[in-house]
Amino acid sequence: MTVQDRLIKYAKIASASDPHSGRDYTPSADRIFDMAHVLEEEMKELGMVNVTLGEDCYLFGEIPANIPDWDGPILGFVCHMDVSSEAPFENVKPQIIHYEGGDVLLNPEQNIVMSAEEYPMLKNYIGCDLVTSDGTTLLGADNKAAIAEVMTMAEALKNDPTVKHGTIKIAFTPDEEIGMGGICFDTKKFGADFAYTIDAEAFGTFQSETFCAFNADVFIKGVSIHPGLAKNKMKNAIHIAEEFDAMLPVAERPEYTEMYEGFYQLHTLNGTVENADMHYYLRDHSYDVVLHRCDVFKKAAEFLNVKYGEGTVTVAIKEIYRNMNDILKKTPMISELPMQIMREMGAEPVITPLRGGTDGAVLTMKGVPCPNIGPGAHNFHGRMEFAVIQSMEQVTQLCLELVKRYALYKKDLSGLA
């Protein structure tokens, strides 16, 4: 099966995580199992061993070494099965469009167009083949393009036993999109010495730095009374919520930041006069700076509690993941090898700080170094999402080359075997 056939197959499976499920365990949505069951059967068909799918919806498998008495490094690949719920994710209708330049007509009936002016990266793919949705839903290339690449790599290894390789571990996770994929990950069960997530964007992108991430919930308790009798009595929780948000620096919102600039993002706001709650993402590449953002939240709550009465505003802050670069810089080989292979393939690596996180950020902190490779797709979480078939083929080849190269190294990566 081709890499694009796999993406099209997987994209049709609705597997969005649910940030509002209220669950403190994985999966956040049972529908992610629909994707997991398909992959479980395919992994077995491809000859993987130790294929296990737990009640937590983590799917593990192993491609056994075909080198006798293998005692070298154990390489892993990690992809997530869930897609974002921030755009429509059901009834995805994937299609292949050969791109010759200009705007991309996704849906003739509804005249849905992906504008070349609005999405200038399209100019890099003239003459290529794009996998898109019909413009009414997301595609799900985040992260199903990556899953397709890993599975296509596995099929290539199965079909060509002359390619010598060590033990390869595969993990497919739930709930990465809501920050839980790495948190509940069983690294001992996974069994890899190090791994690569395949996430983010274009082929050639490589990330060993992520945000440090905290999530914050703000709960506001108001006082409701008939508006005709409200003077000096009503405390409107919605307006207090607006006041809290106005105390945060406007210039430090996601829409005004880039590269190493962190942000405060108001993700959800729900409220009535009596009660309001807000959910925020606090992000920065520096751990000290993101801790400062947490302090800003606490001080804003303290100010409003003095103004409106103690207990009006309550803040709950939770650490999600940290910048993985602090660990990865101690094992530079893991980052240098994929970039070396990219150059050999004719692509100069684009090394950027990842303005987000991956499961790899958490895995790295758990002792499994795990930088990130771009899967060859763009516009994640939206209706204009697309993957480039030729780029996906390159990522598949990159994975195969990594497998072959690591077969030459000793367990500690100190030198060629």
Query: What class would the helix/strand composition place it in?
Result: alpha+beta
- Flag low-confidence runs: none
Helix-strand pattern? HHEEEEEEEHEHEEEHEEHEHHEHEEEH
User: What characterizes the major β-sheet?
Assistant: 8 strands, mixed
Strand arrangement within the widest β-sheet reads 1-2-8-3-9-16-10-15
Mean pLDDT: 94
Q: How many strand segments?
A: 18
C-alpha Rg, in Å?
A: 23 Å
Give the % helix. Answer: 25-40%
Please tally the helical runs, counting DSSP H or I stretches of 4 or more residues.
Answer: 10
Global outline: globular
Distance between the ends? 34 Å
β-strand percent reads 15-25%
Describe the structure.
With 417 residues, the chain is α+β, with helices and mostly antiparallel strands. The chain contains 10 helices and 18 strands. Helix 1 crosses helix 3, helix 3 (141-159) packs across helix 10 and helix 8 (332-344) packs across helix 10. The longest helix is centred in the last third of the chain and has 22 residues, at 287-308. The mean pLDDT is 94.
What are the key terms here?
globular, 4-stranded antiparallel β-sheet, alpha+beta, 417 residues, 10 helices, 8-stranded mixed β-sheet, single chain
Layout of SSEs?
Layout: H1 3-11, H2 32-45, E1 49-53, E2 59-63, E3 75-80, E4 95-98, E5 104-107, E6 112-114, E7 129-132, H3 141-159, E8 168-173, H4 187-190, E9 194-198, E10 205-207, E11 212-221, H5 237-246, E12 263-271, E13 275-284, H6 287-308, E14 313-321, H7 325-328, H8 332-344, E15 350-351, H9 359-365, E16 372-373, E17 377-378, E18 386-388, H10 389-406
Parallel strand pairs: 3-8, 3-9, 9-16, 10-15
Antiparallel strand pairs: 1-2, 2-8, 4-7, 5-6, 7-18, 10-16, 11-13, 11-14, 12-13, 17-18
Helix pairs in contact: 1-3, 3-10, 8-10
